[in-house]
Design a protein that fits this description.
55% of the residues lie in helices and 0% in strands. The chain is built from four helices and no strands. It is globular and about 35 Å long.
Length: 87
C-alpha cells in the first residue's frame, strides 16, 4: 500500500510539473534555468528517473512558479506567479 501511494504521488507530481511548464510555455531547459536546477537533472526528474527527490529540490521547483510545495501535489492546479525575467 505504501509503495502504491508513493507511485501515485510521484505520478501526480510529474504530471503537474509538465502541466505547469506547458502552461507557461517553457522548455525543460528554460524551467531548469528558472528553478536553479541543472537541465540534465530536471530532464531526469520530469522523465521519472529521479523518484526520490529531496525537499530542497521540491522547494526549488515550487519556488520557481511562486507556489508552495504542497501545491505541486494538489488535485487542483495552482495559480502560479512566475518571476519577471531580468534582462
Amino acid at each position: 500500500m505504501l509503495i502504491s501511494m508513493a507511485n501515485i504521488a510521484l505520478k501526480r507530481l510529474l504530471a503537474r510539473l509538465k502541466q505547469l511548464r506547458s502552461a507557461h510555455d517553457l522548455t525543460q531547459e528554460g524551467f531548469a534555468e528558472l528553478s536553479g536546477i541543472s537541465y540534465k537533472y530536471y530532464q531526469a526528474v520530469e522523465a521519472g528517473r529521479k523518484p526520490d527527490l529531496r525537499l530542497s529540490t521540491l522547494q526549488r521547483l515550487a519556488n520557481a512558479y511562486g507556489i508552495e510545495v504542497w501545491q505541486l501535489l494538489s488535485p487542483k492546479a495552482p495559480t502560479t506567479k512566475l518571476p519577471v525575467k531580468r534582462r
